[in-house]
Specification:
With 390 residues, the protein is α/β, with parallel strands linked by helices. Helix content is 44%, strand content 17%. It folds into two domains: 125 residues, Response regulator (Rossmann fold, 3-Layer(aba) Sandwich), CATH 3.40.50.2300; 245 residues, Rossmann fold. The strands form two sheets. The protein has an eight-stranded mixed beta sheet, sandwiched between helices. It has a five-stranded parallel beta sheet with strand order 2-1-3-4-5, with helices on both faces. Strand 1, helix 1 and strand 2 form a beta-alpha-beta unit. The longest helix has 20 residues. Bound molecules: adenosine-5'-triphosphate (ATP) and magnesium ion. Magnesium ion (MG) binds next to helix 6.
Length: 390
């Protein structure tokens, strides 16, 4: 049975431009010229995918998108937004309203066909995805799984990854803590729009043996249901070097407070990072897919081995921050580095900016976006690995 595509645009010329190319690809194509007509056809015709213009004469495409996402039966209906060049804000609003992709006008039918096919395939995979692994019991005496995340070099997206993976795990119903183990300036608060009233600073003024569950628990900032944050220092005067024993004591307390503990480490080695990495059950090395980052990833791997981190504990995540063409392939990097690849995070520059500006991780504001699928898959793999490692 051919998949049904609904194109919504008030300009007949756009409908014509897309109608035949999509039909020639074997899709059954229907059209609507207003928001109201679109909502009616979505109900009555049950399309498999909607191409939706933002600027419609009656109700906006954003509102249509919102209505669709609020209805339980259609919550995962794939939607591609069409927008004019000047409508960046609308585009972000659209992604927040739950659109899966967007295309800027003038539309190229060939590009649209590729996007339609990719999105349909992704939706298919999502629907077939296995249910999430069971949550490990999270009693206070239970030992949680510490997962350390390091960047092969600075600015590769570690904090973004930690924010999104911990949010993804919390969404799956796990009890999670995300901790920023850095002596200077934490960026995690911004990712969740949390006011950084309590930070790690007070703990770094304590003797390691005084750092316990109660002390650490009192410095956690709630971010989402099931997710708490231990934030890095926020101000210049809060700069504190972290002692190795302090790092160990903090992680020791955190694993008693949460089932999964994600530790955001700076990209430069330190005694505190070494202690944190040695305490971790899984070490996620994060890199961008270019030759420069490959060099630093190799250097980090050598260091991790020298520090006695078990080979099997080290996993790789590749983050694309820009849509570059000439990138190294994740599977190739896995082979070159000899480290298991957990996944590749797709580039989502607009979404990454919107997420930061709005203080909500990408997985929360664009639930069916490609980048969210990738992040959710990595989070699920970590949960499975963590439970196995117990
Ligand atoms: N998948 C992505 N697509 C596009 N941009 C991204 C993606 N992931 C992260 N970014 C952007 O990359 C920049 C650096 O990200 P982030 O702060 O998470 O890196 P970091 O490794 O924690 O940096 P630092 O070394 O300073 O701690 C941010 O502007 C972030 O929004
Ligand atoms: Mg960071």
């Amino acid at each position: 049975m051919s998949e049904k595509i609904l194109i919504v645009d008030d300009q007949a010329v756009v409908l014509r431009l897309l109608f035949h190319p999509l039909e020639r690809e074997g899709f059954s194509v229907i059209t609507a010229m207003s928001g109201t007509e679109a909502l009616e056809k979505i109900q009555s015709e049950k399309p498999d995918l909607v191409i939706l213009d933002i600027m419609l004469p009656d109700i906006s495409g954003i509102l249509v998108c919102n209505r669709v996402r609020q209805s339980l039966q259609m919550v995962d209906l794939p939607i591609i937004l069409l927008s004019g060049r000047t409508e960046l804000e609308a585009k972000i609003e659209g992604l927040e309203a739950g659109a899966d992709d967007y295309v800027t006008k003038p539309v190229d039918p060939k590009e649209m066909i590729v996007r339609v096919k990719t999105l349909l395939a992704r939706t298919q995979r999502l629907r077939q995805a296995a249910p999430p692994p069971a949550t490990p019991s999270s009693g206070r005496s239970q030992q949680g799984i510490p997962i350390a995340v390091i960047g092969a070099k600075g600015g590769v997206g570690v904090t973004t990854l930690v924010a999104n993976l911990s949010a993804a795990m919390a969404v799956r119903g796990h009890r999670v803590a995300a901790a920023e183990m850095r002596p200077f300036f934490g960026a995690l608060a911004r990712q969740f729009g949390v006011k950084p009233d309590a930070t790690i600073k007070a703990l770094l003024e304590m003797a390691p043996k005084s750092i316990n569950e109660t002390q650490v628990g009192a410095r956690l900032a709630p971010a989402l249901n099931g997710l708490q944050l231990l934030l890095g220092p926020q101000q210049l005067l809060d700069y504190r070097e972290i002692q190795a024993e302090q790092a160990e004591a903090i992680i020791d307390a955190l694993v008693r407070l949460a089932a999964f503990v994600l530790i955001d480490l700076p990209h430069m080695p330190s005694v505190a990072s070494r202690a944190a990495l040695r305490s971790a059950q899984i070490v996620v090395l994060t890199m961008e897919p270019d030759a420069g980052c490959l060099d630093s990833a190799r250097a980090w791997l050598e260091l991790l081995r020298a520090w006695g981190i078990a080979e099997s504990a080290i996993k790789l995540v590749v983050v694309n921050r820009i849509q570059a063409v000439d990138v190294l392939n994740g599977v190739e990097l896995e082979r070159i580095l000899g480290v298991e690849l957990l996944g590749t995070v797709t580039a989502a520059p607009d979404l990454a900016v919107a997420a930061l500006n709005r203080g909500k991780p990408m997985v929360m504001i664009a639930q069916t976006a490609l980048v969210t699928t990738a992040l959710m898959e990595i989070a699920d793999k970590l949960v499975t690995l963590g439970i196995k490692a117990r």
